[in-house]
Amino acid sequence: MPVARNGTIKLHWESFGEGPAVLLVAGQGMTVDGWWATLPVLSRSLRVIAFDNRGTGRSSRSPWPYSVAQMANDAVAVLDAAGEEHAHVYGISLGSLVAQEVALRHPDRVQALVLGASSAGGFAAYKPSPSSFAQTFLVRAGAMGPDEAVWAAVPYTYADKTRRLHPERIVADITHRVSSAPEPLAYLQQAAAVAAHDAYERLNQMAAPTLVVHGEQDIFVPPANALVLAERIPGAQLRLWPEAGHMYTIDEPRADREIERFLQGHSAVRPARDFAAA
Asked: Which of 150, 6, 160 is nearest to 72 (CA)?
């Protein structure tokens, strides 16, 4: 299996399909397996590069806390290992915060940007109400086992329509996600990285064409966050899905098809640099 290196951290990555490259950056606790619904769609016309964030899956564990900025350097290390000088970057949830930092810190590497279920962080972040069931769940989740937590989160993770009419999608998604569930320490480290993220004042420096995608029924990351991003990032497009929640890729299969078209529209043929030979 291919491995990228950022200092002492080893990052497992995989590649699917051919064409212009898109780097997928997973959400909290997710691994490559968590992109199971997205990979078949995007790999029809793109080279899809996905990896396990540090602390999860087949990547290195870190005994120390880390930041979203460090995770962005991990993502760039994966691009280097894959031999891609430029790529689209598509992040979801925690991964979308990492994608923001990649675009801000390494703008020459990013062709187009997709921010799914995202937030600017800091004072501009809209959070679940302190009295909401979602906030209560987030407090309790750290004491649950991985399997218990992911099933207990179903009412907050998926939209009402999916829970009523498409439970098979939820079962399939959870089956993929629990196959490589994170250890408690990694989950807490990633939660701390999310809490410390703050890109609001820098978002107007974004140079890459950007698509902001959000489910209107997202309880964990309220959709008001998408409005902040779309207003703050120059030229950003906004796509809200009325019948989707936090896991909009499961609730609304059309979302990734639209994302594929967005990325195709911003793809250009550029010579790839052979990093292994450099």
From this structure: 6
Residue pair 208/107 in contact (Cβ under 8 Å)? The answer is yes
Mode of pairing for the β-strands spanning 21-25 and 3-6: unpaired
pLDDT digits (tens, 9 = 90+) for 41-69: 999 999 999 999 999 999 999 989 999 99
Question: For 97-106, 145-154, 218-227, 231-240, which range has the lowest pLDDT when averaged over its residues?
Answer: 145-154
- Position 15 pLDDT exceeds 60: yes
Sign of the CA dihedral 35, 65, 150, 212? negative
CATH second-level architecture of 3-265?
3-Layer(aba) Sandwich (3.40)
Cβ atoms of 215 and 159 within 8 Å: the answer is yes
Give the other-Cβ count within 10 Å of 201's Cβ. Answer: 12
